Amino acid sequence: MKRAFPVMAVLFCCMIFCMTGCGSSEKSDSGAKEEKTVKKQEQQNEKEEEKESEKEPEILQFVDVYGQQYSVEINQNIAKKQYNDTLFIHDGDRLTYADEKYTSRLGIDVSYHQGEIDWKKVKAAGYDFAFIRIGYRGYAEAGTVNADIRFDEYIQQAQNAGLDVGVYFFSQAVNEEEAREEAKFVLDHLSGYNLQLPVVFDPESILDDDARTDHVSGEQFTKNTEAFCSAIEAAGYDAMIYSNMLWEAYELDLEKLSAYPVWYADYELKPQTPYHFEVWQYTNQGSVDGINGRTDINIQLIEKPSK
After folding, report:
1. Of 3, 210, 237, 238, which is the most exposed, with the fewest CB atoms less than 10 Å away?
2. What pLDDT digit, counting tens, does each position of 250-270 carry?
3. Residue 254: HSE in the Cβ half-sphere, 13 Å Cα cutoff
4. Cα maximum dimension of the chain
5. Tell me: the pLDDT tens digits for 193-205?
6. Global pTM?
7. Which helix or strand (DSSP H or E) is residue 256 part of?
């Protein structure tokens, strides 16, 4: 019996070692398995990210007003339009749109070129809003800023006839300082008026003549747009950007201007842009009762109240 005690002690110690040592091994194995699982998941995520980056870019084919074709990569970081293009229904000069989320209404945009306007007839013809040119900068070297000579007449008569009104400024700013000068001009001339729609920055190209903005870069146009719009919004008005597919593709960086809604111009049967817009100028050859000659007609897409 004296010799049995050490043997029993050894057996007891072995049992203790197995209970502790083996348990530690199991825990160690479990941790290693978890680490391997995490690494595998990370590797899988990396592979999926690589596949995403290797995807072919999405290319948009579009035409300008002269029918010239263009191809451009779609920027996936810019909000896309939510409209179903097949639901834009043309009936002569009139256009409608309706789906589960959006409804629409029609409006016009005018400058002094439209001459005398019978705004009551415009309203009776089913047009509910108007964008009126408040002013413009000349495209010659001097680049003077001018008021539209019919602005006051148009805005007063349009609102009296029951139309909602916004304004636009035809810009030829070559830098941010000039863009802010244009914004100040607009704000000064809006004194005493209430608007139902935004103030629009309209940086158009001059297609049939030399212009002071011919050599302004897209980066600078984007800076000018931000300078104008931020000044307008700082004064308590809503700002909007007038654009077309050429400008969205090659001039304005809409990713940097995402805070502002877009008034999109395109005279094709369907809007070619993949990006979101709130107003579509769909023709510049419309016939509207109350206006002599042709004029621009627009459709505004209005989100329905959530139920």
Report:
1. 3
2. 999 999 999 999 999 999 999
3. 27
4. 127
5. 999 999 999 999 9
6. 0.83
7. none
Reported as a single tens digit per residue, the pLDDT across 56-90 is 899 999 999 999 999 999 999 999 999 999 999 99
> Is 65 part of a structural domain of the chain?
no
Q: Which residues contact 260 (CB under 8 A, 6 or more apart)?
A: 225, 229, 239, 240, 241
Tell me the HSE value of 222 on the side-chain side, using a 13 A CA sphere.
Answer: 16
The total of structural domains in the chain comes to: 2
Listing DSSP states for 55-118 in one string gives: SPPPEEEEE-TT--EEEEE--TTSPBP---GGG-EEETTEEE---SSEEEEEEEEE-GGG-SB-
**158 and 233 fall within a common domain:** yes
Give CA separation, 141 vs 37, 144, 213, 275, in Å.
67, 9, 9, 34
Residue 297 near residue 95, CB atoms below 8 Å: yes
**192: buried, middle or exposed (CB in 10 Å: 19+, 13-18, 0-12)?**
exposed
24 is written with which tokens? 């530690």
Whether 60 is in a domain gets the answer: no
Structure tokens that stand for 214 in this block:
């011919």
